[in-house]
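Methods: example folding runs. The two proteins below were folded one after another, and each record is reproduced exactly as written to the output file, sequence line first and structure-token line second.
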Amino acid sequence: MPNWASGCVRVEGDPKDIEEFCKLFLFFDTDSMSQYFARSFIHQKWGEFKKEYLGGNIAEFGVEFAWSGHSCLVEGYPNGEECITLIEACKKHKVKVAIDTEESGFAFEEHIQCDRDGDLIEESNYMPTYVCACGEEISFPTNYDCLDEEECWKCEKVGNWRKK
């Protein structure tokens, strides 16, 4: 069973190209397809997703990747011709993509960008660790700004965190 990297995907381009790109993710009602992003899941039915997120020149939505965005979209999986990579998909559908993920099990976050020409930029970092006054440690994403509202599961105090 993999750890899950939760992510936010932003796709820019022509609405029809964005739609074709988005069809590469795996949806609740995906039965079979010739190409897809390996282990990259959107927890909706395609019709619901299309109605909620598509139609404009920009689409932003959540996705779950098994292990990491990099392992699913950049490396792909050894499924031969079935698993398309992000580079191939951006070039094929002429879209620009930005993806931010966080995976709390190993406490890392990723930022992945790919333009219409397939130029890829990736960054992966460990999330900062914070320590409660009771000594409990936890990691939060870099851009997380609600530490003063976070309760420690061990001592149940709120906002008692300092960066390690």
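Second run, written to the same file directly after the first:
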Amino acid sequence: MKRLYIFIILLFLVGCGSNNKDTDEQNSSSNIVNISDNNSSSNSTISDIVNNNDLVNSNVTKIGKAQLGVISNGTVKLYELSGADKKLLTTEKTTVGDRIDEIGNFNLNIEKLNNDKYYLYEVSGGDDYDIEDDGIINSVPKSNKGIFHLIAKGSTIKKANKIYITIISEIVYQKVLPYLNSSDIEDRLNSVSMDIIDKDITGDSAIDFFDIISYNPITNRDNLNTYYKNSIFSMITNILNGQKYDFKDDIYLPDSTTETEIQKKLDSGDYAYVLNQLLNNRDAYRDMSDDKIDMNIAGAYVGQSGYTVFDITSAMANSSSKHSLNSFVLDTTKDNNP
């Protein structure tokens, strides 16, 4: 009888251990979700939400700031990205306070970041205490009903002294969101940054993604190009009101990245400029179809090489698809050589 009792107790303990293992596995897998909606947050949570009220006076050296205007008591989730999948790492609250520099801060948790991986910071809820972005605290804040983001590489986050999550970082996030499974995310981040920023912010004489994460809405609005500078407050209002705003197709084209500018360069004989731009930065020319871009590349090669109409006709006749202009373009631009 004694042995029977021992056997029953052992069965009970094994059963409990098995149940705990299942629970752990479920908790781990539930933290991985797919990024399916720009303006929706994952329901994934971490039970211990970090309160950062003493963050400014702590030993934390890398601080982020959530700032449409400064967001007090907002929720910041940090995700690790794997393509379009995201895994929740931390959840915390932004700081409250009586001054602009005290409100909206949070720990970037850089100790959790891998240099070569991409990460997503997601801000929701809280109250905006500087709706006009003029550096003056509002006596009555506006409740934030929306969500905004910042996506960046681990090494980029670690290199920055401070990172701002703003309307500008949300625009960049939405524009690169369809390409999270591609291998050129970093190039796209820099390319989109050049569309948005008109004047260098960081002082390194270059416009790139570091200007996006360094953008302070109070002091740097004049660094934006005219289109975004004039549109920024309506965009912020949409987010605060919880209204969905799709920035992916929100196109601003600098004069230097249009078909008109390319045509001017072709007409002036600046073929090297055309080839450099269209071969290395073709995604920036969004008013040109792929066929138009290829045609202009071919035209630059033709001009650069001194081809004649007879040469073009002969090339077309000898191409794999005889008398095909498209085939001639492909043959001409193959391996970046005429």
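Comment on the second run: The longest strand covers residues 85-93.
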